[in-house]
Design a protein that fits this description.
Length: about 190
């Protein structure tokens, strides 16, 4: 079985490939890439999402096929490259220290005086009110509310954050930014 899906979003192509016979896969891929190249004056760029790791000879054959069809390969993504999401179904308690090395979905709250450090994003269904230390500048923390949470991202200083609406705290230009995700409006009845 050979399955090839080619997706184009904003002139960026992604080629998703599943196969059990590599030679027939190359034949079908060549046909599909030629059809895409006709719409782009013979040349276009694409990322390849492969089912499994390619051997060296298979990789060379794939590059030769792409070269024949005018396709520039921008990169590969294997099934193994997806991020793991850790799901925690409890509160993070006061006085405890928690360290995470992957993205976290917390189905609870971070209580005041809890110490949390992470090298990835944190998504919290509940409220955040502890000491949060995110190591990298592209890390973010998103929660349904922040109540006197002390947050530091990358090289910023700890900053006290409070928001009664769902919000996201992120790092920009060496400072923490708070972006409310839902705006509450009220109207005066006359």
């Amino acid at each position: 079985m050979v399955q090839i899906k080619i997706k184009a979003i904003n002139h960026t192509y992604t080629v998703c490939c599943t196969y059990d016979d590599f030679p027939s896969f190359l034949t079908m891929l060549k046909e599909r890439l030629n059809a895409c190249a006709k719409g782009h004056s013979g040349k276009f760029e694409a990322f390849f999402h492969m089912q499994e790791e390619l051997s060296e000879s298979q990789l060379l054959q794939l590059f030769a096929c792409a070269n024949e069809t005018g396709t520039m390969i921008l990169g590969f993504l294997n099934q193994d490259n997806h991020r793991d999401l850790m799901i925690i179904e409890e509160n993070l308690h006061s006085g405890q220290t928690y360290e995470f090395d992957r993205e976290v979905l917390l189905l609870g709250s971070i209580q005041a005086e809890a110490f949390v450090s992470s090298s990835e994003n944190i998504y919290c269904i509940g409220s955040v009110g502890g000491n949060i230390d995110l190591f990298h500048e592209d890390c973010r923390i998103t929660a349904s509310g922040f109540f006197q949470a002390n947050i530091r991202i990358c090289d910023s200083h700890y900053q006290n954050m409070t928001s009664f609406a769902p919000a996201q705290v992120y790092y920009k230009e060496r400072k923490l930014q708070l972006k409310e995700l839902k705006e509450e409006k009220s109207w005066v009845v006359q």
